[in-house]
Each structure stands twice: as C-alpha cells, then as structure tokens.
Amino acid sequence: MKTPFVPPDPIKVIQELGELNRKLIKGASTLTGVDDIDVGTAPKELVYEEDKLKLYHYKQEGKVTCRVPVLIVYALVNRQYMLDLQPDRSIVRNLLQHGMDLYIIDWGYPTKADMYLTLDDYINGYLNNCVDHIRKTTKNDRINLMGICQGGTFSGIYSALYPQKVKNLVTLVAPFDFSTNDGLLFNWAKHMNVDALVDAYRVIPGDFLNAGFLMLMPFTLNIRKYVDMLDVIEDKEKLLNFLRMEKWIFDSPGQAGECLRQFIKDCYQENKLVKGELKVGDRVVDLKDITMPLLNIYASADHLVPPAATKPLNDLVGTADKTLYEFKGGHIGVFVGSKSQKELAPAISQWLHKRAGEETASRQTKASKGADRQEKNRKHRNS
Amino acid sequence: MEKTSDFFDTWLKSQETFIENWTATAKKLQESFLPPGGTGGKAPDIGGQGVFDLYNSWMTAVVGALKENGDSCLKIVKDTLSKTFSSSHAHTKLYEIWLPLAEAVRDNILNAESYKELIDPAKYKEIMDTVFGLTSARAISEYYDQAVRLMQTFGAAASGFVGPWTDAVEKGTKTFPQLAEGRPESLLNVFHAMFNAFDSTFGRAFHVPAVGKDREKIELLLRGLDDLSVYLAKNTEHQQMMYAAGLAAMEKVIETVAGNVRDGKEMTDFSEFFNLWIDVNEKAYYALFKTEPFSKLQGELLDSSLNVRKHFFKFMELYLYDFPIALRSEMDDLYKTMYELKKKVKGLEKEINKLSSQEAGL
Questions:
Q1: Which of A97, A359, B88, B184 is the right S-S partner for B236, CB 3.0 to 4.6 Å?
Q2: Would you call A62 an interface residue with chain B, using a CB distance cutoff of 8 Å?
Q3: How many angstroms separate the CA atoms of B24 and B30, rounded?
Q4: What is the 3-state secondary structure (H, E, C) of A368-379?
Q5: pLDDT average, residue stretch B208-235
Q6: Nearest C-alpha neighbor of B300 from the set B236, B216, B220
Q7: Cα separation, B116 vs B96, whole angstroms
Q8: How many CB atoms lie within 10 A of CB B207?
Q9: CA distance A35 to chain B (A)
C-alpha cells in the first residue's frame, strides 16, 4: 500500500511551519501598510436627518429611466454600505447604471440615549418621515420600497400600514414567518430571555450579535477564513476586498433595547406578524394590506434567513401581482456575489421599470386618492 | 501526554484549577474580616517542548501584543491581523495533532480507536477554545478576586457581623475536594448552601431596614457571587457539551482518514486534512446547535450571565451613590424624559406643518 500523507519528517515540519510564518510575516507587513479601507463610495448627498438617522440620495450620473424613486431600507443590524461595498461589487452602482433613482437610509449607531426607541419609532416615525420626505421633494405620491433582511420586514410592515405611499415593494432575504427552526438564529432566539438582555444592556452591543453570527459557522468564520486569507495576502487588491468585508462584518451598531425586545418577542418568539397580531404603535399590521406589486427575493442557501422564513410572504399579501424570486446562493451573496451583480440587480431593475408605469410626478392619481380614503377608513376602524 | 478519553471524561476535574483559585479567594475573603492566615494556591502552568514551544511562545506574544491597545494602524487591520495570528495558531496546533496521526498512518497503525492514544487532548482543547472563545476558569477566578478586593473595603466596617458567615465559608471550603471529583452543579449547591447559611444567620441583620448601606453592599456582592456560581455551573455544562461534540467530530475525521487509508486514497498534505477537519466539525456543531437541549442551555447560560451583570450594576449603584456622579438609573430616567419630550415635540411639529399646509391651501 502506498503511504498516504507526507511523512512527518522534521525537516518537512520545519519547512511547512516556516512557510506559514513567512506568509504571516509578509501578511503582517502588507496589512500594516493598509491605511484606509474605503467602502460605500458611490457619490451621494445627505437630504434628510433626524436624530441619528441620515437619508442619502445617490447621484445619478446617467439618465433616470425609472421615474419612481426607490428607497433602500437596510437592517438595523450591520451597515447599509454592504450594498456598495466596493465599485465592482455594488448593487447600488448597478441599479444606478440601470437608470434607477436611489435613496438609502443610514440608521446610525444608537447610544444609550436611544434605548427607548421602539418598532413604532422606527417604522411609524423614522421610516415614514423618510418616505414622506422623498414623496414631497420628488412630487411622487408613492415611491418604491426596497427592504433588505430586517429592513425588508420593516418595509413589509410599513407597506401594510401605508399602502397609499408605496408603489412597489421589493424585499430581499427578509424574514416574515418566524415559526421555522431551519435557521439557528430562529432556534436560539426562541430560548432567549430578551427581557433580561435588554434590562442588562439597554442598548444591545453589536459584538453580542456578532458572536451569535460567528457561531453559525464557527470553524469557517473563525479559523479557515483567516488561514485561507494568507494565500492572497500578498495581493493588495484581494486583501482590500477581504478587509472591506471584515470591516462590514464587525461594524455592527448596537440595537435599541425596546425595539429589539419587541422584535424578538413578537416576531421570533410569538410569530405575530404572520398571525396578524403584531401591533406597531396603535395599529395592528395585516399583511393582507400589502396591495401593491411585490417582488420577494430569497436565497436558496441562506443560513441567516432561511427560505422558510421568507417565502410565505407571497401567500400572506393582498396583492395579485406578486413574484417570488429564487437567488441561488447565500445571504451575503445576494449583495456582493458576482452572480448578484450580473443577475439580481438587472432583474430588480427590469421588474421595477415594468411597474413604474405612467406614475406622473406632481399629480395625485385616482388610485392614491382611493388609497388615502382606504387609509382614513382604516384609521377610523382602528380608533 | 494524557490519554484523550481520560482527558475529556475527567474534563470536569479541570475545574479544580478554578476551585483552587476559588479557595484562595475564600481565604482572602476571610482575611478581609479575620486575622490573616494562609496563602492562595495557584494553578500550575503546563509546559511543552521542542520547536512548537518556541513557535507557540512567539505566537502567543504576537497575539497578546496585537490584542493590546495601540494606534499603529487602523483598528480593522489590527483586528484582522490579530485574528489571522490566532487562526494560524489554531492551525499550527492542529498541525501538532496531525503529526502523530501521520506517523501512525506511515506505520500502518492508525484506526478509529488508536487515535485516542495519539491526540494530545490539551492541545485539542486549546483549538476549540480558540474557535469558540470559551472562557477559562482562571478568568472567572479573576472576577472573584476583584469582588474580594471590593469586599475588603467593607471588611473593617462590617467586622462585627462576619462570624456566622465565615463559619459557613469554612464549612463550604471543606467540601472542595469532593467538588473536584463531582458534577458542576455540586459547586452550585455548595455555594447555595453557604449563602443560605449566611442568609439565615447573619443575613437576617441585613433585612432590618435603614441600618447602613455597607451591609446592603455586602449582601448584594454575595448575591452577585451566588449568581456567578450559577453562571459558572451553566458555563461548565456548556463547555462540556462543546468539547464532547468536538471530540466526536475528531473521531469522525479519523474514521474518514482511516477509511481513506484502507481504500488506498492518498491524503497528500496537511491542508487536505485541515479542510476535512473544518468540514466535519462544521457539520457536527451545526447538528449540535440545532438541538433543543443546546438552544435551551445557551439561553440559560445567557440568562445566568445577565443576572451577574444585573447584580453587579446594582452593587455599583449603591457603591457610587454618595459620589457626585450620575448613576445608571438616573441616566435611564433622563433618557426616558428626553425620549418622551422628543416624541412630543416631533408630534407637535407635524401638527404645525399640517396646519400650515392647510392654511396655505385655503
């Protein structure tokens, strides 16, 4: 029988360790030469500010071909620049090239002064104010919402509460049905004493959440990733790509305690959104009130938000124009994978262009007047 | 080298290190109230030899230096460098483990059973600690030490009250040898017993209202230590579960390698072994993490750590009450007021804008 393995010859051992050290030292030298890690570089302008929230409008250097602006709503966890991580891996730049008019919310970094912010404040407050700002300044009665991950859940809730303000809804890897145990986070959250967590921290540190994310693939994310990185460390461009992703992963804002308390309890533990029992402010959210066209994108290999949490939305909404889109890849691949750039961004653009229709600026359409009436009636019913 | 099976089967005994330190802590605690006597025991350091020693000491120094504060480069670069060195350290540890296996393969003695004799369990534990950032007993002991130092502050003031309680400590200390052999919950029980003894005797005095903050402080501190022992028990249980899964995964790795050897498939280098090890472990831990008992235990572990934190904050509030600084509860009130006022102002602004628009439209 042939002897497998390289025999443990002492010289060989020293050589292999020496090689690892060589890479490490070279890597240390390359790494310490990095003085800036640029992310989110697509040109944009600050157009609205409220407390720690900032609303940016991306500069469109080409021609806007889709007249209805798109507001990108990212999750409270991690930062929105994931969508513009680097020029060649940027959904934002890609959508701009397809003639979209883009806005994005930066939720900021909550401090203890923000510990009492609730879901109501985020959705009926900040998000609604951003939508109103865009509606007013662009003279559009309704705008497109594109929500990502938890931002997709927020966008879905918002669209159900304010259908008269949303022309089309796009959700990407957004959880709605929390009853699944497919994802570890969903499983763990069910056993979490969130009251004790919030009472102890007030604002839950980003590091706490990150520890949970790293536990999803501990060996890959804590060991293999860095060992593999040594193979490309001498290539500055590849190293910068790696560092940009590292920066994003560990750039985790804290979570306002009261908001997280309600999100974990009502969604992860009691699945109230799907049951039609979630109350945001003084209103109950009924997903059937999502009456605008819906594009729901899920990732087939998503380990953070499994398809079982995403796909049911299409069965719960009130609209007949609904599209379920499968992206073959993982959660992060949706934003930065090369397939995402080639496939997903053009598909979103095409879907939105098709539905932008003849939405005319500065003119309130009959449809939105009707929706306004519906809204008034609903308020009356709720009161 | 200790046998793997022995190492993990008696892993709970490693808590002995902690208990030794804890004994020292208890002695210090007594010293804060009673005339000094005895010295604290320290856990022996385990040494090694050969090229790996040199490499490991160098690596430890580098990782330690990187973890310290400094402004030499961007934080993310520094963090990445630190993680890369830590990962390489784990990589090298695995290499150390792999070498005797490779020798066994060369000598045709590798099988799924013999590997237990070949793996250095202490090194393997170190890898798993790196992957999961598991807390060492020593770190918890340090926490106790700090608590004791605070306790000493009150020693003189409270010296008249300590008799029954130190008796309880003494009784508890006598049970430590049994603890080292037992289950983690026995530690918990001992501390509970001590606490109850204290609470039912000297502790009664604390429940008398308005007799001084110092006594409240001591009581809170003791409650904090009680919480800490609950946390420790949960943490031990959690770590035991993690190590057991790691060991089972390693067994599977070796089975795969031995199977490949039998089938005459070549495993040409260490990186192939490394990748196999990662993949098998990832699957094994995913299976563990998905179970109800693990999720439940993790929830309980978190809960117990939050209890420690809660008591610590209460204690600090009490301790800092007389100082001219804003306390956490006072800041909470302030934040609440700010939040409510902001909300009110925003609502009023919206009303004004609405009225202005209506007026302009008229």
A1: B184
A2: no
A3: 10
A4: HHHHHHHHHHHH
A5: 70
A6: B236
A7: 15
A8: 10
A9: 6
